[in-house]
Amino acid sequence: MRIGIMTSGGDGPGLNAVIRGAVRRGTRAHQSEFAGIRDGWRGLLEDDVTPLTTYDVRGLSGRGGTILGTSRAHPYSGGGPARMREVLRARGIDAVIAIGGEGTLAGAARLADDEGLPVVGVPKTIDNDLDGTDYTFGFDTAAAIATESIDRLRTTAESHHRCMVVEVMGRHVGWIALHAGMAAGAHAVLLPEFPVSYDRIHRWVRSARARGRAPIVVVAEGFVPEDRVEAVAAKGEAPDGRPRLGGIADELAPLIEEATGIETRSTVLGHLQRGGSPTAYDRVLSTRLGMAAADIAVERAWGQMASLDGTDIVRVRMADAVDKLKRVPQSRWDEMQILLG
């Protein structure tokens, strides 16, 4: 069997480890050959494919980014499924492992279930918002980077007796803000799932200051305060028409300073959370998911993806995994609130 591998959508730490795990498992356990599809669906639509051997994946476990490149190309553009069939047939590719988040796997599920294409998946998103898996690789690294950044900002905040507002990624869900906020001991944590009022934010900040602390506010980019209608999108629109979220920290900082009298600064971490080497946890998870994906492909279980259930790697239908977002539950928010202020 010849298996093609692609990485699609936003990048994230651990992509290369998935590629390595799949190639090593497929080559050694199943005597399969591999092909690298460049820049996600674009490579499959434009026949941008290159051989991928165990030599090519040496030392990839700790390397960030993706050696195959990525893009947000739509699988139904540029000839769509019909063109993909031509490329797969011409290249002798029997299966495709699609590594990506909600958008990528939704497209992969449709191609497998509706078009009959030989596609399996591996879930990836630093937001950890994909249903059907307990954790996605890349999330642990993003949360660790955010935590370290908050730790560093705390020292300068304490030196100047300031409040710091730190914006992390999280368009629809607040997993990064929740974990980084808890790990770093933030005094206010603001999630898209649970709108709170400006007054409540100010009370948390005042409470921290009253105890002699330099208040730390962690906010997900998709957080919407109670009296706002939509998230802040100060960066315009993406090519697909979606608003580019970001800027809520810059909006909150002057409001907090005005309401509390505490000098306040904002920091937007942005793509720092996507870059660099993956944590040990993400390297292990990525490798295991890649190995499992190779098994799924060899068994021709199209439309399935590798998933984490507790500590076990299992299989689930991609269509089920993208049916809804995995949001922070009320129980986790209740835990967090005890620590705030």
TrEMBL record:
UniProt pathway: Carbohydrate degradation; glycolysis; D-glyceraldehyde 3-phosphate and glycerone phosphate from D-glucose: step 3/4
Positions marked as site (Important for substrate specificity): 103
Known cofactor(s): Mg(2+)
InterPro entries: ATP_PFK, ATP_PFK_prok-type, Phosphofructokinase_CS, Phosphofructokinase_dom, Phosphofructokinase_III, PKF_sf
NCBIfam families found in the cross-reference section: PRK03202.1
GO molecular function, one term: monosaccharide binding
Family matches, as SUPFAM superfamilies: Phosphofructokinase
Protein name, per record: ATP-dependent 6-phosphofructokinase
Described purpose of this protein according to its UniProt entry: Catalyzes the phosphorylation of D-fructose 6-phosphate to fructose 1,6-bisphosphate by ATP, the first committing step of glycolysis.
Organism of provenance: Brevibacterium jeotgali
PROSITE patterns linked to this entry: PHOSPHOFRUCTOKINASE (PS00433)
Lineage of the organism: Bacteria, Bacillati, Actinomycetota, Actinomycetes, Micrococcales
Chief location category: cytoplasm
Any one Pfam family match given in the protein's UniProt record, by short name: PFK
Active site, renumbered: 127
Binding positions for substrate per the UniProt entry: 125-127, 162, 169-171, 221, 265, 271-274
Quaternary organization: Homodimer or homotetramer.
Keyword Plastid: no
